[in-house]
Design a protein that fits this description.
Nucleoside Triphosphate Pyrophosphohydrolase; 7-stranded mixed β-sheet; 7 strands; globular
C-alpha cells in the first residue's frame, strides 16, 4: 500500500526518532514522491567521526583566512599559565565581545559590522563601560547599522548585568536567558564560543544547513520543525564535544557552532555550492539530488509504506515546478560568459539530465523544457538509443550539477511571501531663521516600539487609505503643526512646498514619506517653550547638528533631499 504524506500536523516528542536503534532507520527517500518515515531524518553526521573531524579542520582553516576581530583563541581555564584574577577579567571581556558581535551580526553583513564592532569596543571595552554610557552616545555609535532597537537592548542589558550580576556575563545558557534581549541563539553562542560549553545554537543559516543534512522539506519557522532542529543541534554539539565531568568545557563547541554558521553563510546558502561543502558526504538532500541525476527512481517495494504511524510529518510535499525552476536558474548561472542568442537557448532549457529529442516527440512537444516527469519516458528507451542521445560530457556534467544544486536549493521549504502593508505619513521639516543661521526642529521617538529613541522631524501619520491630493496633504500638515505650535498664529507658519517622496521599507511595513517644508517666524520664548522640560524630547538643531543626529535611515533620506536644495 502506498500512502502519501500530506503534511498533517501529527504531534509527537520532537526528537524521539533520534534515539531509536539504527536498524529502524529508513534508508530510502527518492524524489519526486519522497516517501519516507520519520527515522529517515536521523543525522548521518552523528556517527561519522571522520567527517566531524574534517569539518572542524575546515573551519580552522577558514578562520585563519577569514579573520574577524571577534574571532579569538579560546581561553582555557586549565592553562597552567593562568592567573585566576587575570583569567576571569579576560574571560569576562571575551564573553562581552562575543555578545556584542552576535547582536551586531543579526540581519547585518560581516563586512558592515567589522568597523562598527571595532569602534564600539574601543569606546566601551567592558560591560561596565557600556552600562555607564549615555543613551544618545550608544545610538550615535550605532548610527548607520540599522535596527536601532538592538543598540538600546544592549545598553539596557549591560545595565542589568552590572546591577544584578556583578558586571559579569554568566556562562550557562539558562542564566544568559535571564538577561534582557538575549534569546536562545545568543545564549548558545556566548556559552559555546566564550565559555566552551556544549550549548546548541540555531539561526537562519544553521537551520538551512541542518534541514539539508536531515532531508527535511519543511518550513524552519514551523514549531515542530524548529523543535527538531534545536534537538539535533544540541545532540550534535554534545556528540562532537564528548564532554564529561573530567572535561566539562573545551574549544570544540565554539569551533563547531561557528563552523555551522560559516558554512550556512558562505557555502550552504539559499543557492548552495555543494561541490565545496565539507559536509557533503552526510547530506541527505545532496544524496537525493544525485539520485535524480542517476535516474534512481523508487521501486514499488520501496514505496510500500505499511505502517502509516511511521510516516514523516515534518516534510511538506515537494513541488516539482519549484525544483525545475531552481535547476534551470542554476544552469543559467554556471554558463560561460559571452554565450548569447541561439547559443544560450541551446545550452539552457533543461532541469534534468535529459537531452532534447525532437525526433521522438510530437510536434507540439518539440522544444519544450525537460522536467523530472520525463524520467519514465527516458528510462523506457533501449540502452543503445539512450547512449546515442546523450550530449557532450561537459554539458551533461553541467546539467547534472545544476540539477543537484537546484534540488538542494529547494530545501528547506520556503516561507510564503507575505503582503507588506503600506502606510503614508507627512514629514514636516520646520526651519527657523536665527542670528546663528537656520535651525530645524527635531523630536525623539518613544523609548519602546518601532525606531525606539531615534530622532525624527515632526511626523504625522495619514490615517486615510485613500490617495490624497497634494492640497489635502498640505491642509493636513498645517492642522497638525498648528496643534503643535499652540502659541503661533497661522501667518507665522508658512508652507514652503512639498519636496518629494521617500519610500522606506521595513521588514513588516512599506512607508511612504511625503516631505513638507515649513518656515516659522516666532518669538524666542515660543521656540524655547517647544524644547522646555515638558517638551524635553524636542530640540532645535543647525544643519551640522541634524547631520550628526541619530536619525532613522528613512528620515535621513528625507533630510538629504531637503538639504540638497540649500547647497
Amino acid at each position: 500500500m502506498t500512502v502519501r504524506n500530506t503534511g498533517s500536523a501529527k504531534t509527537y516528542k520532537a526528537a524521539t526518532f533520534l534515539f531509536r536503534d539504527d536498524s529502524t532507520t529508513s534508508q530510502t527517500c527518492k524524489p519526486p514522491a519522497r516517501l519516507h518515515n520519520i527515522n529517515y531524518h536521523r543525522p548521518l553526521l552523528l556517527k561519522d567521526s571522520a567527517t566531524q573531524t574534517s569539518f572542524l579542520a575546515w573551519f580552522d582553516s577558514i578562520a585563519k583566512d577569514r579573520q574577524m576581530p571577534w574571532r579569538k583563541a579560546w581561553l582555557s581555564p586549565t592553562s597552567p599559565s593562568n592567573d585566576e584574577e587575570d583569567f576571569n577579567v579576560a574571560l569576562a571581556k571575551r564573553a562581552y565581545e562575543v555578545w556584542v558581535s552576535e547582536i551586531m551580526l543579526q540581519q547585518t553583513r560581516v563586512s558592515v559590522v567589522i568597523p562598527y564592532f571595532n569602534n564600539w569596543i574601543e569606546k566601551w571595552p567592558t560591560v561596565e563601560d557600556l552600562a555607564a554610557a549615555q543613551q544618545n552616545e550608544v545610538l550615535a555609535a550605532w548610527k548607520g547599522l540599522g535596527y536601532y532597537s538592538r543598540a538600546t537592548r544592549l545598553h539596557e542589558a549591560a545595565q542589568q548585568i552590572v546591577r544584578d550580576m556583578e558586571g559579569v556575563l554568566p556562562g550557562a545558557p539558562e542564566d544568559l536567558l535571564k538577561i534582557k534581549g538575549i534569546g536562545r541563539y545568543t545564549a548558545g553562542a556566548i556559552s559555546s564560543i566564550a565559555f566552551g560549553k556544549a550549548a546548541p545554537l540555531l539561526d537562519g543559516n544553521v537551520s538551512r544547513v541542518l534541514c539539508r543534512q536531515l532531508g527535511i522539506h519543511g518550513r524552519v519557522k514551523d514549531k515542530k520543525v524548529e523543535d527538531v532542529l534545536w534537538d539535533v543541534a544540541d545532540l550534535l554539539v554534545r556528540t562532537v564535544c564528548k564532554h564529561d565531568e573530567a572535561l566539562p568545557t573545551s574549544d570544540i563547541p565554539g569551533r563547531w557552532n561557528q563552523g555551522l554558521m560559516e558554512l550556512g553563510s558562505t557555502i550552504c546558502t539559499p543557492k548552495p555550492r555543494c561541490d565545496e561543502c565539507p559536509l557533503q558526504a552526510t547530506c541527505h538532500v545532496y544524496a537525493e539530488g544525485l539520485s535524480i541525476t542517476l535516474q534512481d527512481r523508487p521501486t514499488a517495494r520501496e514505496e510500500e509504506l505499511i505502517d502509516i504511524e511511521d510516516l514523516c510529518h515534518l516534510c511538506e510535499p515537494l513541488e516539482l515546478e519549484e525544483v525545475e525552476d531552481a535547476a534551470e536558474e542554476a544552469f543559467e548561472e554556471q554558463k560561460p560568459s559571452g554565450i548569447s542568442g541561439s547559443q544560450s537557448r541551446k545550452r539552457s532549457g533543461t532541469s534534468s539530465a535529459l537531452p532534447s529529442r525532437p525526433s521522438k516527440l510530437p510536434k507540439s512537444e518539440q522544444g519544450r523544457q525537460r522536467s523530472l516527469r520525463d524520467f519514465a519516458a527516458f528510462a523506457s528507451l533501449p540502452k543503445s538509443e539512450k547512449t546515442s542521445l546523450r550530449p557532450k560530457a561537459s554539458r551533461e556534467a553541467e546539467q547534472r550539477h545544476a540539477q543537484v544544486v537546484g534540488y538542494c536549493s529547494s530545501f528547506p521549504r520556503r516561507e510564503p511571501k507575505k503582503t507588506v502593508p503600506e502606510e503614508q505619513c507627512i514629514v514636516c521639516i520646520i526651519k527657523r531663521k536665527t542670528a546663528n543661521g537656520l535651525h530645524f526642529l527635531v523630536e525623539q521617538r518613544p523609548s519602546k516600539g518601532l525606531l525606539a529613541s531615534l530622532w525624527q522631524f515632526p511626523t504625522h501619520t495619514i490615517q486615510s487609505k485613500l490617495e490624497l491630493t497634494g492640497g489635502a496633504r498640505r491642509q493636513m500638515s498645517l492642522e497638525f503643526l498648528q496643534s503643535l505650535f499652540a502659541g503661533v498664529s497661522g501667518d507665522k507658519l508658512q508652507f514652503s512646498g512639498e519636496k518629494g517622496l521617500v519610500t522606506h521599507i521595513f521588514s513588516h511595513l512599506k512607508l511612504q514619506m511625503h516631505i513638507h517644508v515649513f518656515n516659522i517666524t516666532c518669538e524666542q520664548e515660543i521656540a524655547e517653550a517647544l524644547t522646555s522640560e515638558i517638551q524635553s524630547a524636542r530640540m532645535w538643531l543647525d544643519e551640522e547638528g541634524v547631520d550628526n543626529a541619530t536619525l532613522s535611515t528613512g528620515m535621513k533620506r528625507c533630510w538629504e533631499k531637503v538639504r540638497a536644495g540649500y547647497h
